[in-house]
């Protein structure tokens, strides 16, 4: 039976591990404005990425936005996930499909929709000005707020579906028993629903965090050229600057930071869950 997984393992090695090894080798090369990539075995690109204030600011900004978007997505997704997980209607499958439907649309198309909504002469400003709510157009485009809204819109279905699957497995009798013992709705949520939905919270948060850390189209289209996150910075090094060694080093820095926080969160949650 073990031999049956050999073809899949070889395919993973060929399509994933192999290119990553090649990119790591490229990250150790040096860059010259005249000769472009020069063969070397130097950690200079990693040292520069870790010590240069410019790249430090990009890494911290990416990490902060990813954590904030993960938290806000969790807060927004929980009510919808609970409603979906407890739904017993025959229309539940249609609701699940409606939740999945945004995932069928590419991030670029969705970001273009937000651009049409947030622009100075976009739908939102037009409506607000006609209603007399504002006297001048709001500056929403090319701001951090626009990027956060766009990212949350992309990752929200993942969190809802992950949480609803776990909430659906929690017996309703536990809620009824807590209510019969005098617990309020808020207390039932904090003492019963939230602890038992912990695996879904962890899985959904990790998935959303990884997606937020690696967002590209949303950051570029809604944040503008001055807004910097790690994925656009990697693209700029590869395509605009032709600095493949630095681009590869930044890509591995992004991978390392994402993996570090993912592993830390997984271990912290596992210890807390076992202790509970």
UniProtKB/TrEMBL annotation:
Residues 59-265 form the ABC transmembrane type-1 domain. Keywords: Cell membrane, Membrane, Transmembrane, Transmembrane helix, Transport. It is a multi-pass membrane protein. The keyword Transmembrane helix applies. It comes from the Bacteria. InterPro entries: MetI-like (IPR000515), MetI-like_sf (IPR035906). It holds the Pfam family BPD_transp_1. Belongs to the binding-protein-dependent transport system permease family. CysTW subfamily. This is ABC transporter permease. It comes from Bradyrhizobium aeschynomenes. The lineage of its organism: Bacteria, Pseudomonadati, Pseudomonadota, Alphaproteobacteria, Hyphomicrobiales.
């Amino acid at each position: 039976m073990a031999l049956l997984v050999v073809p899949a393992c070889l395919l993973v090695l060929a399509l994933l591990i192999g290119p990553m090894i090649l990119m790591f080798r490229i990250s150790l090369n040096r860059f010259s404005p005249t000769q472009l990539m020069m063969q070397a075995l130097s950690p200079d690109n990693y040292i520069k990425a870790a010590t240069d204030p410019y790249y430090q600011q990009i890494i911290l900004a990416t990490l902060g936005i990813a954590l904030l978007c993960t938290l806000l997505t969790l807060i927004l997704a929980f009510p919808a996930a609970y409603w979906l997980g407890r739904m017993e209607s025959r229309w539940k499958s249609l609701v699940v499909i409606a939740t999945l439907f945004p995932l069928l649309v590419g991030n670029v198309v969705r970001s273009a929709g937000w651009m049409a909504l947030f622009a100075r002469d976009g739908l939102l400003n037009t409506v607000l000005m006609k209603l007399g709510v504002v006297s001048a157009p709001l500056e929403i485009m090319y701001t951090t707020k626009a990027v956060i809204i766009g990212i949350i819109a992309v990752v929200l279905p993942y969190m809802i579906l992950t949480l609803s699957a776990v909430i659906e497995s929690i017996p309703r009798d536990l809620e009824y028993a807590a209510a019969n013992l005098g617990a309020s709705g808020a207390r039932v949520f904090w003492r019963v629903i939230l602890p038992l939905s912990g695996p879904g919270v962890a899985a959904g948060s990790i998935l959303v965090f990884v997606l937020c850390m690696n967002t590209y189209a949303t950051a570029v289209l809604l944040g503008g050229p001055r807004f910097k996150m790690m994925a656009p910075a990697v693209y700029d090094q590869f395509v605009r600057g032709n600095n493949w060694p630095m681009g590869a080093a930044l890509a591995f820095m992004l991978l390392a930071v994402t993996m570090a926080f993912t592993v830390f969160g997984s271990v912290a949650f596992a210890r807390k869950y076992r202790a509970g």
